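Teaching soon. Invent one.


***
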Amino acid sequence: MCANNSFNTLPEDFPPGHVVSAEGGRGRPVMWVSEEAGPALRRWWERMYDDHLRTGLYPLLLDSSVDIDLLGAAPTTDVIERVPGDQLIREYFDYSGNGWPGFAPAKRLSVHPGYAAGRLAAEAPDTTRLALVPSIRSADTPALIGWTGAMDYTWDVEKISAVLRTWEDRFGIRVVRLGSTTLELSVAAPPSTLTEARRITLEHAGFCPSIWQEEVALDSYATSLVKRPVWRFQWA
């Protein structure tokens, strides 16, 4: 959490909303959520994104499928920092019995991460609500709010955020939209070749094994990643 993260400092003309606590209201306050949805919230997302380093409040777009009463335990930033970035992926490959070559190298940014995030935010449907999470890093937000979207794969959401931190550092990803079981990331440094995309595909597999649904092959999935500025995941 950030020191400068008071929800009381929101602009006077800010949309109506309320503070949400984790664990169905039994835990600590973890985010502010707008009461209504609509295109105006996307414009507020842009304003709050541009200002999040000052406010300490990172904006997310929440799909209508998100039930805030089903938020789970919300680990703190300290817990995320103690999780190795490759732990979730390595556990997946250890379980499957296949070797993992390690993380793909970092890529040079193709665009500014904020620009890539803004383009994805602009595509959000009118049913999307705005959330503000006390965090500087977008990667930490799923864990900090107690998101349970990957619970059919892992209950330890800090492992999800630990992977996202590595992608934030290497590929300029930003967490933009969350659904009940979905996660949408903007990518400022997507792979530019099939060889690069194959390595990243292995990371995606360890992060969300559901990418293999409908018998998707490694090369076909990797091809879809080349120069693609959005990564979408669904756990189900």
In short: Residues 15-234 form one domain.
